[in-house]
Amino acid sequence: MSSSSTESLEVEPSTFYDYYDSYYDAPKLCSKEGVRRFAASFLPVLYSLVFLVGLAGNILVIVVLFKYKRLRSMTDVYLLNLAISDLLFVLSLPFWSYFTVDQWVFGTPWCKIISWIYLVGFYSGIFFIMLMSIDRYLAIVRAVLSLKARTTFHGFITSLVVWLVALSASVPELVFRESFNEHNFTTCKPRFTGNFTTWKLFSTLEVNILGLLIPFIIMTFCYSMIIKTLVHCRNDKKNKAVKMIFVVMIVFFFFWTPYNIVIFLQLLEFMGVIKDCQVSRNLDYAFQVTEILGLFHCCLNPVIYFFMGEKFKKYLKMLFKNWQLPGYFCKWCGVHITYHTESTSSFHTQSTGDQDAL
C-alpha cells in the first residue's frame, strides 16, 4: 500500500502501494517530486488513522459476534468473515505507512506476505459484501427458499469458497513481489517474468472485474429486487429497510468506483494512450485520494453492517455495561445508557425480520 501512484512507465493497478515505483520509474522529463512529497506528508497520517479506526471497529464486531450472537445464522457468519477481511486489510497499513516516508526495510519474505495479505483482505472484503447482498435478497425476496438456504452451514461453505477465490486471485503477489534495490532505493514491487505488458493488463482487469464489475452486477440485481418487493409489501419497517439498502449500495460504490476508474486510466497511460506529463501527475494525486477513500470503507463496514442495526445496538450496550472501563467512561461523561433485557433466543430469529440486524 505504500503510496501507490500511477507511473509513466510502470503501473501497478492490482494493489495500492507502489507510488515509489512510479516515482523512480517515471521519465526524468516528467518530474513527480511534488507528488512524492505530498504522499510522504499525508499518507502516513491517513494510513495510521484508518489502521486505528479499522482495527478497533472490526475487533469490536468480532467480540460482540462471539460473545452474544454465537454465529447462529448465515448473516452472523458473513459479518464475522467481513470483519476478518477488513482486519487483514488494515493490518498491512503500518508497513506501507513506513514505506511512504522511508524505503522498504522488511526484506523480500515480508514484502510478499504483506502484499498478499493486503490483497486477500481487499478481495475477500468485497466478496463478503456481495454475499451479504445475496443473503438479504434470499431473506426478503425468496423468503420460502431462504428457510433452507440461509443456514449457518451454508454460510460457512460459501465463506470457504470466497476465501479460496480471494487467496487464488492474490497468488501473483506471492509469486512476483520482491524487495530489491533500484536507483539507490529499496522497494517492494512485482518483478514480472515473461510478457510484462500482459501481466499489467491482467492485473488491472482482475481488479476491475473482481473488485467492481461482478459485485456491481450482483448487488444491483439483488437490491433492485429487494426494493421492488418492499415497495409492494405492507410493512412498518419498509422505509428503514429501503434506507439501509441505499446506504449499503451508495457507500460501497462511492468508495470503490473512483479507485477502479483511476487504475483503468493508469493502464491507458502505461499503454501509451495518455502521454501528457501533467495528466500523469494528476493521476498520481487522484490515485492517492481514491486509495484513501477505499481504505476508509473498511472502517465504515462495522457501522453499516453492524451498528446501524437495532439488535446489535443492544448487544453493544450489553458489552459496554459488562466492560468496566467503557462503562466508567460513559458515566464520567454523563452519558446514560438504558439497557433492555431480552431473551437470547429473541435475537436469533431466522426470518425476513432479521434484516434489521444489519
From TrEMBL:
GO molecular function, one term: C-C chemokine binding
Domain G-protein coupled receptors family 1 profile: 57-305
Location(s), subcellular: Cell membrane
SUPFAM superfamilies in UniProt: Family A G protein-coupled receptor-like
Record-linked Pfam families: 7tm_1
SMART domains named among the record's database cross-references: 7TM_GPCR_Srsx (SM01381)
GO terms for biological process, alphabetical: calcium-mediated signaling; cell chemotaxis; immune response; inflammatory response; positive regulation of cytosolic calcium ion concentration
GO cellular component: external side of plasma membrane
CDD domains the record matches: 7tmA_Chemokine_R (cd14984)
Transmembrane segments: 45-66, 78-101, 113-132, 153-171, 209-231, 243-265, 285-308
Membrane topology of this protein: Multi-pass membrane protein
Coiled-coil positions: none
Major location (coarse): membrane
Keywords: Cell membrane, G-protein coupled receptor, Membrane, Receptor, Transducer, Transmembrane, Transmembrane helix
Keyword Cell membrane: yes
Highest taxon of the lineage: Eukaryota
Family statement drawn from the similarity comment of this UniProt entry: Belongs to the G-protein coupled receptor 1 family.
Protein name listed in UniProt: G-protein coupled receptors family 1 profile domain-containing protein
